[in-house]
Design brief:
Blueprint lengths: L7 H22 L17 H29 L2 H14 L1 H10 L3 H16 L8 H4 L9 H7 L8 E3 L3 E3 L1 H12 L12 H17 L10 H17 L23
Antiparallel strand pairs: 1-2
Helix pairs in contact: 1-8, 2-9, 4-5, 7-8
């Protein structure tokens, strides 16, 4: 699929155009609504559509992905499960390194390079997270965070089929990280790459199962707020700021899996 996107500069232009369109739409939705109309949540102007997609995703998850993930947790020993998670996390250090450089975060770039080196060499290809033991905890960075660092707004909240919660900025970041920047996934051959991707998805879903116990109230609002708060937390590098997404009756939780 990457060959289809070999024209990388046109793709970047497309992503930036999509982000700009999202910003224009978000600003338009924030204009005063006509008298008597239903108020629109400025952070979730497409809530009706998003809830429909959320229901669709939940149905797919309930009948397909979650049962597979539960079976995976049942048959996979904890050390093996942790090793699989560590392996895929180690692959993300290339992304962390590139986006740290783009955000002028020299220390984070050094940490990402150090983590990849330690975990690859001493952690048996990334199966063991020895870098954390060496006081080099992961500093996740993606192109969505890079766009936020340089002032790009997030745009309206979006629930995407199969992909889950997102925003135009977040989705543009995913596309850029996946199809524009170099990745260790480039070295994988078909069909092995598809097996590895499937394992990564199942492993990620299995790791989220314990977090389901925290969900309460309206699950759609809970997931939305958790995602938006988590993204703000990452973009601000963990600095506590005024939370624009929380309200008195909304649940408040940042889930690592989003």
């Amino acid at each position: 699929m990457r060959q289809f996107f070999s024209g990388r500069f046109p793709l970047v232009t497309l992503i930036l155009a999509m982000l700009l369109a999202g910003q224009v739409q978000a600003q338009a939705m924030q204009e005063p609504a006509p008298e008597g109309s239903t108020p629109v949540d400025p952070k979730d102007p497409y809530e009706s559509w998003n809830r429909s997609v959320f229901t669709f995703n939940e149905t797919i998850d309930r009948w397909v992905l979650k049962p597979v993930a539960q079976a995976y947790r049942t048959v996979t020993p904890t050390p093996v499960d942790r090793g699989v998670t560590n392996f895929f996390n180690n692959l993300q250090e290339v992304r962390n390194f590139i986006n740290s450089l783009l955000q002028l975060k020299g220390e984070s770039a050094v940490v990402a390079a150090g983590r990849f080196t330690y975990n690859t060499v001493f952690g048996l290809g990334g199966l063991f997270d020895v870098a954390t033991a060496f006081d080099l905890p992961e500093r996740p960075e993606d192109f969505g965070q890079t766009l936020g660092y340089w002032g790009a707004g997030s745009g309206p909240y979006l629930m995407l089929p199969f992909l889950g919660p997102s925003t135009p900025r977040h989705f543009g970041g995913l596309a850029t990280d996946g199809f524009v920047f170099p990745s260790l996934w480039d070295a994988a051959e078909s069909p092995e790459v598809y097996y590895a991707r499937a394992l990564q998805i199942v492993d990620k879903r299995a790791d989220l199962i314990p977090a389901e116990g925290f969900i309460s109230g309206d699950s759609y609002i809970f997931v939305r707020n958790a995602f938006l708060q988590r993204r703000e937390y990452l973009i601000n590098d963990g600095k506590v700021t005024e939370d624009p997404f929380a309200s008195d009756d909304d649940e408040d939780l940042m889930l690592e899996g989003f």
